Amino acid sequence: MPALARAAAALVRPSLRLTARPAGCTRRHCLSTVAQHHPHIQEVLLPKQAIEARVNELGRQIAADYADKRPVVIGTLKGAVVFMADLVRAMEPPPPGLELEFVRASSYGAATVSSGKVDLSMVGPTDIKGRHVLLVEDIVDSGCTAVALLEHFATAGAASVKLVSLLSKPERRTVTCEPHYLGFPVEDKFVVGYGLDYAEQYRSLPYIGVLKPECYA
Ligand code: PRP
Q: I want to staple 180 with a disulfide (CB 3.0 to 4.6 A). Which of 42, 86, 162, 214 is the partner?
C-alpha cells in the first residue's frame, strides 16, 4: 500500500480518511512531507497542513464558545506547548481577557507506557477560582493525566473546566475521559512530533509521525 494511503488509513475518524485528503493538504504537499520525513519516522500520520487546518477550525470554535468568558488557557508541559502556541493564535477573534498559563504534568518519563501516576504543579501563581479554564493537552492516552488535571482545577474552584486535545487514543483509555474539543482520534501507534516526544526527542517535528519500533525497543 502506498505511504499516503497508509497514513490515511491510520486515521480513525472516517471523514478524515484520504478519499479526501486532509483539509489544506495537496497531493504534492503530502508526498513531499512523506518523502522528507525524519529517518526515525516510519510514516507521517498527520501532515503539517492537515494539523494546521484542524487547529484553525478548533481555534475559531473555541474563540466563539469563550467570547464572553475571559478564559484561562492552561497548557500541559511539555507536550502541549507547540499545539497551544498555534491554537491560541487561531482563536479569532481573541476572547477578551484570555490568559495563558502552564502546568507541569508528567507520567511517562522515558518510557512508552504511562506509569499511571501523575505529578503536577502549576508554573504560575494565577488564581483560577471563578475562572473558565480550558486545559490544553497534546494527547489523551490512558486519560490519567487529563483527569488528574481537570479534577485539580475543579477542586481549585474554576467556574468551568474543559479539555482540548490535539490527539486521542480511545482504545488506550483506562479512565473515562473524552476531550470537549478534539483534533484527531488516532490508532494505538507510538506517535511523536508537534510537541510529542520520545525521551525528549522529536518534539520539534512539524507533523505527527509514527516512530520506528527500533527507536524505542
Ligand atoms: C504525555 C502527554 C500527556 C500525557 C497523556 O505527557 O503530554 O500529558 O502523557 O498520557 P495519559 O493520557 O496516559 O495520561 P508526558 O508525561 O509524556 O510528559 P511530556 O508532556 O513532558 O512529554
A: 162
